[in-house]
């Protein structure tokens, strides 16, 4: 798969990883980037610096009408990067209610599903193309102080596997990207190690070029994915100790 000359749509483009995706795609020589975000004004500087290649679009992936309208309007897309996501940083039992969990599922799972469904015919018409889903290693193992987020990412991982199977016949590559903690504003209070957003993007785009289906950017993701194969129950028990308050404990060490 050659990125050069491609037309790409990136959701969650105003965030730390989203902006790095735009820079990485520009460096790869793509023809056009539809930079999608809920607040397009956050993309004005990127548009100003690259007026011929970046098209900011207002898109909330939880709004099905907006998703379907985007697929109808931006019919030249051959690479879809599902980067939009949210977390409410809460456990399952300790959360005050299930509203946060519903919000995470609406964005991380149903939003990704809606984008895949809407753009699958677009990609097919353009020769197959690629879908990249920014998941998380936490889709494979639960970190209890943000347990509902992990559950939504587990659903997104399962969704990715299903979409990969269903779209294989039309020649669509589906890449799952599973980093550990990424060094963004969201994770500013988290302890190291953290992987740089630029490294996440580099690994993801290399996966597209080399047609690799699952990748684990960063040392943390590499280590934990290996531990999941070596001693999954041991890793589960280790992470089970990380309940609400663990970040405060780690800061004091």
TrEMBL record:
GO terms for MF: oxidoreductase activity
Record-level GO cellular component terms: membrane
Gene3D superfamilies on file: NAD(P)-binding Rossmann-like Domain
InterPro entries attached to this UniProt entry: NAD(P)-bd_dom_sf, SDR_fam
Assigned keywords, A-Z: Oxidoreductase
Domain of life assignment: Bacteria
Entry similarity comment: Belongs to the short-chain dehydrogenases/reductases (SDR) family.
Protein name: Short-chain dehydrogenase/reductase SDR
Species of the source: Tolypothrix tenuis PCC 7101
